[in-house]
Amino acid sequence: MATVNDNYLKLKAGYLFPEIARRVNAFAQANPDAKIIRLGIGDVTEPLPEACRTAMIKAVEEMSDRSTFKGYGPEQGYAWLREKIAVQDFQARGAAIEADEIFISDGSKCDTGNILEIFGKNNVIAVTDPVYPVYVDTNVMAGNTGEANEKGEFEGLVYLPVTADNNFTAEIPSHKVDLIYLCFPNNPTGASATKKHLQAWVNYAKANGSIIFFDAAYEAYITDPTLPHSIYEIEGARDCAIEFRSFSKNAGFTGTRCALTVVPKNLTAKAADGSDVELWKLWNRRQSTKFNGVSYIVQRGVEAVYSEAGQVQIKALVSFYLENAKIIREQLTNAGLSVYGGVNAPYVWVKTPNGLSSWEFFDKLLQTVKVVGTPGSGFGAAGEGYFRISAFNSRENVEEAMKRITEELKV
Ligand SMILES: *Cc1c(COP(=O)(O)O)cnc(C)c1O
């Protein structure tokens, strides 16, 4: 008899976004004329930069001629792309990362999940709370946790609460953890990390032989020039960190798909016999066996991100969403709400007013002003009493949503 991976049965049936959809659909059915504005899901709305589109069209043309046609590419990505990334994203910032330490992939979501394959089963794993749910669910699927309690916390994971009380930066644990997920600028809180804070994590990881999984999906949104974009700007990070980056949020590739993972060559973890094993070799083996590369067309599109025109265009794209975030911050502050984030990130993290729970505030916003956001409690127990508003939308929708909130919801 065939059996299933029982770990999947421990998952909380992906309840956040389906539950949002259920409540929005019920409201829309009861109020067919209501113009609902969705500021919930974190997907981009603006078109791909022209430089990327032009490069992809040219790449499609190359596919039409036998002499320029491309079949399988390198599993790790084309060298011409990895070189540009190494120079422009890392070396230009003083981060000593080489092209062959960069693995091009079809998404950070997959990479942050797949990376667990090269790690052992007995690691103590820490996540922040609230957190990007992918980190938790992929650990559940991999069998790295026990069952969830009624708050949705999985046995065996270490949760590091991030709230207004600690300025949305997790305290360094007093005990030893082996794998730590950090995401800065943060989804969902919109918080960013200083060099000092990341240095403290790197020092902790080096002292404990831990590995940091650093998710920099939102690095392009950093506006404060003193903040680090990469963990490799921090001294010692090459010895303890893997970094994930994506073209989804800086260049609008959520539907086109392209990302990258950096595994420094000297980075090691222990084998069962106590010897040090290079993680680069394992990840290279994993990718070469289970992945066949990102399409040539898409990699040419991403290469154009690094052209002069591409840089101007992605900066304009990011500025557009950051201006939305600024409008959201200002208007919600005018409405009497306490808001966080939204300065170096496309997410504004709102404290719910009058002690409302995250879901109570969700219902209130939906029913009174027909605006949809994301309940903070859906990202973890410590997100209760908070609410995420995404800046990924048209200016018109953002302005209309904020107008409704300030006019009707002043607290
Ligand atoms: C959007 C996002 C990503 C990017 O995922 P892709 O699979 O590359 O689209 C990664 N991490 C976080 C926290 C995100 O919000």
TrEMBL record:
GO biological process, one term: lysine biosynthetic process via diaminopimelate, diaminopimelate-aminotransferase pathway
Catalytic activity: (2S,6S)-2,6-diaminopimelate + 2-oxoglutarate = (S)-2,3,4,5-tetrahydrodipicolinate + L-glutamate + H2O + H(+)
Record keywords, A-Z: Aminotransferase, Pyridoxal phosphate, Transferase
EC numbers, comma separated: 2.6.1.83
InterPro entries: Aminotransferase_I/II_large, DapL/ALD1, PyrdxlP-dep_Trfase, PyrdxlP-dep_Trfase_major, PyrdxlP-dep_Trfase_small
UniProt pathway annotation: Amino-acid biosynthesis; L-lysine biosynthesis via DAP pathway; LL-2,6-diaminopimelate from (S)-tetrahydrodipicolinate (aminotransferase route): step 1/1
Modified residues (N6-(pyridoxal phosphate)lysine): 249
Cited CDD domains: AAT_like
Enzyme class, first EC level, given as a word: transferase
Cofactor: pyridoxal 5'-phosphate
MF terms (GO), sorted A to Z: L,L-diaminopimelate aminotransferase activity; pyridoxal phosphate binding
Binding residue positions for pyridoxal 5'-phosphate: 72, 108-109, 132, 187, 218, 246-248, 257, 292
A Pfam family it matches: Aminotran_1_2
Residues annotated for substrate binding in this entry: 15, 42, 109, 132, 187, 292, 388
Domain Aminotransferase class I/classII large, first and last residues per copy: 35-405
Function: Involved in the synthesis of meso-diaminopimelate (m-DAP or DL-DAP), required for both lysine and peptidoglycan biosynthesis. Catalyzes the direct conversion of tetrahydrodipicolinate to LL-diaminopimelate.
Family in the record: Belongs to the class-I pyridoxal-phosphate-dependent aminotransferase family. LL-diaminopimelate aminotransferase subfamily.
NCBIfam families: DAPAT_plant
PANTHER family: AMINOTRANSFERASE
Quaternary data: Homodimer.
Protein name in the entry: LL-diaminopimelate aminotransferase
Gene coding for it: dapL
